[in-house]
Task: structure prediction
Amino acid sequence: MKRKSLEGNACAIARTLDVVGDWWSILIIREAIAGTTRFNDLHRQLGVAKNILTIRLRALVEEGLLETVPASDGSAFQEYLITGKGRALLPALVALAQWGEEFLFEPGEPLLVPVDAKGGRPLKKLRIQSQDGRSLRLDEILMRTVRY
Result:
């Protein structure tokens, strides 16, 4: 069954999910941010079926989150590089990881989380801030339709 497109939806969350709303796309972006660039490496790292990986990679390239370039080693292969648009998803990935770490793991259970490359320490918990830098609670946030 083909899913309904949310392309014209007024909700930014809905439109984002239309582009990266399946788990394979998010995990491919995670791997691309981590530096995995080759189809076979993505296939091995993720364990996704090759046909699904092909479809997701094509969609992520069409949406401008990844770009294809000739392989850096001069071979006949191509590589998938993360674009600025794809890198801009990093805060969303960090938020998902921090939420999962807090609610889905038992103490002492091994987990893969983003850490500071310089010191190897966990990242500071993301917080929601107003334009003037105030931390906001859930009851201080509204969802509204606006025009810029």
Strands lie at 66-70, 78-82.
